[in-house]
């Protein structure tokens, strides 16, 4: 009992330290040399003013709640709180209208969605199937790129739909189509290029193709609707536009890391396919890949992935990278 409580306490402290370190790091990134080429200077100042206004409104609301708790005086009425909420929402909408979607936001969204998607998938498979296995989609890091790519596609498309003020049904249908095409493309590419399978819907009664099923199209549509209306605006507001050199350099380094990680993953599975066909390495780089990304490495890291002959013995639906 004591060990369990001590472990929880240590975990709590580590989480608090990690959050504090992240806040300090992001604040440090924001104190770098200001950019003047990132956005139009007038729009930049206007956008900065909006963010300051929102921060002040949120701080004032929190201070009012704290004052009520200490003084026991009547707190803000519902109408007052609704007015503050509406003012903040309108200000955020104005800020998003000024925001220019670029590689900076795309890379951050890809990273966040890749990590969160992998975590949710791990939890889902543990709860529904009792499976606890390694399920990343890249050779380095806790990333599942299909979720990252899905989030990026939904962001780019829903961002355009937002400009045209389309209805919920349109967003739902477009998101369902985007999700279905993404699953079809990813599944077909894995099987065609690497003779690999990470998931299959062939045993589901509502499957459309091996990698697409009606029930998951519905989920894609629902996810897209929630993403467009709630998650994307909040996330893009939190990310904002780059204002310092430090921010651009940091995200640039993350981009380079992702490119290398994706390239090495393709190299890893390209050589795996070649080894299965009895093709020896022809360059020093291919020799290095064979030495460092062996069949045992692939089997241990991508435990939900069926490659080559294993694909014939694959289970039904077992998630996706």
UniProtKB/TrEMBL annotation:
Keyword Transmembrane carried by entry: yes
Keyword Nucleotide-binding part of the UniProt annotation: no
Keywords for this protein: Membrane, Transmembrane, Transmembrane helix
Superkingdom of the organism of origin: Bacteria
Chain segments annotated as transmembrane: 103-126, 138-157, 211-228, 248-269
Identification of the protein by name: ABC transporter permease
